[in-house]
Amino acid sequence: MTAPLPIPWPPTTARKKRWLIGVSGGLDSMALMHMLKEAGFRDIIVCHLDHCLRGRESAADALFVKRAAEKLGFSVETAKTDLRKRMVESGESLETAGRNARHQMFSSVAKNKRCKRLFLSHHLDDQAETVLWNLMRGSHGCRGMQEISELVMDGVRIEVHRPLLGVRKSDLRTWMEERKLKWREDKSNLVNDVARNRIRNEALPLLTEIAKRDVSPLLARAAQSDSVQREVMDWALTKAELLDPQGRLHLGALRELPVALRLNALADFLKSNGIPSISSALLENCAAMINLASPACVNLPGGRRLRRRAGRFFVDGA
Known about the structure:
about 325 residues, alpha/beta, Rossmann fold, Uridine Diphospho-n-acetylenolpyruvylglucosamine Reductase, domain 3, 2 domains, six-stranded mixed β-sheet, four-stranded antiparallel β-sheet, 12 helices, about 50% helix, about 15% strand, globular
């Protein structure tokens, strides 16, 4: 007897709606795709982006995903991008370039298919990596991924759902193996040439050895605590009238906030304008613009800028 679905699903009304799902062909996304089918979802559009990093293996991944999705009766949207070329042209890291390319594909499909709901297959172990990475790069607090969040890209807003955040990768593997379902292994995940791979393959096992206990659930729990604090801050920010009718940030209202809330308000403002990779250092530079003697412009990721003019903050650029 195979194990049941390891997560609770939305009510039947949600299952009747159209959804997007990002599927790479790996264990996590293939498991989620099959779970959606088993849970009764029907109108699913599978999105697969070929990053053109592994030659024939990348092409084989795309074909594998297409065949598996069509066998389940799901629609498929595929695209290709030369990720290394993008890295050279944009100056983005491999991880950032890949994430932004995927987000651009999601926004394009969401617009063309009139669907603003997206499933992603991040799980508990991904959450632990994210928390540790954010702590290492100086991001604000023990910030992790949210089960429900918003993605803004190219003017398109997408509601993102991560139903597997509380599930271990090992449990997903067991679930797939019991059903004799297949997936593709990306061998590049085993090569410690990028930070996230080293966190997964070296740092977390070492921390587990030092602590003499599995640290991934502890890090994921820290993200939950941070999320609770975040809810309190969000509530506080709703009491402040920060934006004008044009969506610009009031400098005076921002100045009245406590420092912690000020940084959160700036982070929210940047995210709402589609700015990725928001570090603590970037937030501090933006907050410094409150001082009128400081420069009236800060460079942002993606070639954009935060500007100060006439008592307002706004984002411009590409």
